[in-house]
Design a protein that fits this description.
The chain is mainly α. The chain has 21 helices and no strands.
């Protein structure tokens, strides 16, 4: 277990370093790009990219997760069969969407989206080809190489997009940078994973692969429908600049909540190692909630205090409405971070449909509430939809409790509630900003912080 713990912490450190670098690059890139391009032109790009990212999730059909979480060794023939399936699914998804770009453009009332979507769909096919070699690296917990490739890809993206923005290419600079980034990462994953793509076909291998992969994929497809709410619902009711402003708010939250991404990626590879030990799974959920809240909460609160100044003086006044929707989205991301490991536990134990039912309820509540509120309250209606969707999370708790037992919510619930109040200090009054600080200084919180300090101080730095 020491070796596994060492790999986990080393992998976490690699991903943390990569995310910190990514956050710095993205903030600089977003600052320059969004200020020059503006929300009206940024909106169609956000909408097109959101559709492409959903298409990419459909194209991979959960095969990546099957390759990473497979209990026994994954041989070369299984990888080649996975490549054949990915080529088949990717071609079908990209071809279907290419034929539907005109229909999509009419629905969202943004004609500029059609050519952007037509070109960006190429990146969907490239990302699909990256799945097998990237899964090979992740299965081996080789996060050092993964982090290096992803960082280099991001450098290439901004190294391409920024000069093109200054040259006057506008939103097409983002399309060029993104396409080049995905192409580079595809090649780099193949080289680092020492995988030469070939195709094979064997129904004896395909049946169990698709049985597990589609069970997971169906759940993931349902969750990723969230990403279509902004382009397809906000874009239907509001002008392109509103889609761009909501898109920037989402992008900022993705950058600020990098610890959530790290925890999920580590849990995919690590929880499978203790899947036959329910007590350890419950402990992982309990500690995961607390660590995620502790790591993410201060970042979200800090941006709620100073984000308005940053947007006004750095991004420009056209982006000021982002802060209207920010606290709603921040609370949604914070809540999701707490329940990330719940979903991972259920996936590892092959309770995919338990997660799927949660996703169905969540997305229906989110999309329906957004449809109702956006037309009445503008982009704040999108945030209201996020608040309504929080009522779906108890479904994950009941599934985990029924499967392995109930995590301890005490401290994490206290921290969550205080952060929720603090995020809405503009609406509730300045007193609300002090609530998270008071909660962190209370005796139970201090006791838990000391437990974490002792736990991390005993962790070997170079365990193997």
């Amino acid at each position: 277990m020491t070796g596994l713990r060492g790999k986990v912490f080393e992998g976490g450190a690699m991903l943390m370093g990569r995310q910190v670098i990514s956050m710095g690059l993205s903030l600089i890139g977003l600052l320059v790009i969004t200020r020059i391009i503006g929300p009206t032109n940024y909106g169609p790009y956000v909408a097109a990219l959101g559709i492409c990212q959903y298409a990419q999730n459909i194209g991979q059909a959960g095969i990546a997760v099957f390759l990473i979480r497979k209990a026994d060794a994954v041989d070369r023939r299984t990888e080649d069969i996975a490549t054949a399936l990915l080529l088949l699914f990717g071609s079908a998804v990209v071809g279907g969407l290419e034929a539907s770009t005109g229909l999509i453009a009419r629905w969202v009332t943004m004609p500029a989206i059609q050519p952007l979507l037509a070109v960006l769909l190429f990146s969907v096919f490239v990302q699909t080809l990256s799945i097998v070699p990237a899964a090979r690296l992740e299965r081996d917990l080789d996060f050092r190489r993964i982090a290096a490739i992803e960082t280099a890809g991001q450098l290439l993206y901004y190294g391409t997009a920024l000069p093109l923005v200054f040259s006057g290419l506008g939103v097409w600079s983002l399309v060029c940078g993104y396409t080049l980034q995905q192409t580079f990462m595809c090649l780099a994953f193949h080289i680092a994973g020492r995988y030469r793509p070939r195709v094979a076909w064997d129904m004896a291998v395909i049946r169990p692969m698709l049985r597990y992969a589609f069970g997971y994929a169906a759940s993931d497809w349902l969750w990723q429908l969230r990403g279509l709410v902004n382009p397809l619902i906000v874009g239907h009711f509001l002008p392109a600049e509103a889609v761009g402003q909501v898109g920037l708010a989402i992008r900022m939250l993705e950058l600020l909540s990098f610890t959530k991404t790290i925890a999920y990626r580590l849990s995919v590879a690590v929880l499978s190692k203790i899947q036959d030990q329910p007590a350890k799974l419950v402990a992982a959920a309990t500690d995961g909630m607390r660590l995620q809240t502790l790591a993410l909460g201060p970042v979200l609160i800090g941006f709620s205090w100073f984000g308005g100044l940053i947007l006004a003086h750095v991004f420009g006044p056209r982006w000021a409405p982002v802060m209207l929707v920010y606290p709603y989205l921040a609370l949604s991301y914070l809540t999701n971070a707490q329940f990330n490991i719940h979903a991972s536990i259920l996936y590892v134990l092959h309770r995919n449909w338990d997660v799927s039912w949660f996703h169905i309820v969540h997305v229906i509540m989110f999309a329906t509430a957004t449809w109702i509120f956006v037309d009445r309250y503008g982009i704040v209606g999108y945030g209201m939809g996020e608040l309504v969707a929080l009522l779906s999370y108890p479904a994950l708790h009941f599934s985990v409790r029924r499967t392995v037992g109930s995590p301890n919510y005490g401290i994490s619930a206290l921290w969550w509630a205080s952060l929720a109040i603090g995020l809405f200090w503009r609406e509730l009054g300045i007193w609300a900003a002090a609530v998270p600080i008071a909660a962190l200084l209370c005796p139970p919180s201090i006791k838990q912080l000391m437990v974490f300090y002792r736990m991390f101080s005993r962790t070997p730095r170079h365990a193997v």
